Amino acid sequence: MTAENEKAGSSAAAADGTTKHVPSASVSDATDSPAPPYSEKPPVFPSPSGSGTSTPRRTTQIPLRPAIMNQTEEEAQMAAAGLTEEEKELRKREKKKGGLSKAQREELAAYERERAAARKERVDTLAKKLIDRISIWTETDKGPDVTKAFQEKTRLEVENLKMESFGLDILHAIGQTYLQKATGLLKSQKFLGIGGFFSRLKDKGTIAKETWNTISSAIDAQMTMEEMAKMEEKGGEDWTDEKKVEYERRVTGKILTAAWRGSKFEIQSVLRDVCDEILNDKKVPMSKRLERAQALVISGEIYSKAQRNPEEEGDYMAFEQLVAEAAAKKESKKKGKDKKEHGHHLHSHQADAQAAADDLPNVPKA
């Protein structure tokens, strides 16, 4: 009776959640007893430390300072704003576009359209003027007297323009462009048009070279200005008044060189479009376009051969002398090489022009 009361009391205590002393069980009792109920707990994984030993670590940590320092200011601002990865990517794309707002991009696009329209209007106006100028030869019987009169009129234009500052360079640039475009069209009408293909290829090479010359001259001017600023800041006995005047003259020459090459590039770019306008107009018969090309060959030859006499040199050549001095002081060897190449290209253009002129009717042979 007493044993039954003790068992009932222990069962009641277990039901009430109270703990009482229970005698230790034997090994057989432990193996036969059921397993304790499963309780799901989050596992804790040790993270490797710098020494290679496993060290327990908190699941929530404050970001380390080096990680913050490695972020850029923009990334830190986006992280603080709580932006998603897609929003961050959009921000980066907007920055690649120049960091312009939508209104600024629209304003820039409107400016580009306005600039393109102004250029087209300029090209159309110059094309009409060029057609009127060469119509003296193209709209006549092209007899010897008419051809000679056309050549004399072109020479008078050359005489007036060559007295201007950089006049000779402008004339040579115009003549080179006329010869390239005109001979390209004339050669395209010959055997399989192979000559026209090489002329167009040569034209693209000239454009690439002129573009590089324009960019390099601007970079050269910037580097010379920075060099002068460093020497002036450094001072010392080497920085004398004579040295300063010499550098100022050199910087002026570099700036003028960059400005002139930019202007020359613009002149030739517009003139190429003008020549394409009058030579590639599908509304005009091919026979008339070939006559225009022949007239451009006659004019281009005269422009490319323009020269000044020693008596014609004056104060208007001051800027040209500064440009020449800047080029000479930069690298005399390179100048000689470029001069040789320029002479070769000029001779090549003149040879092409002469070959094209030989095919023209009533054109005096050189």
TrEMBL record:
Low complexity bias spans: 8-17, 47-60
Gene Ontology terms describing biological process: protein import into peroxisome matrix
InterPro entries according to UniProt: DnaJ_X, Peroxisomal_DnaJ
Compositional bias ranges of the Pro residues kind: 34-46
Highest taxon listed in the record's lineage: Eukaryota
Bias (Basic residues) ranges: 331-348
Signal peptide: none
Domain DNAJ-containing protein X-domain: 119-323
Annotated region (Disordered), positions in chain: 1-107, 327-366
GO cellular component: cytosol
Stated name of the protein: DNAJ-containing protein X-domain domain-containing protein
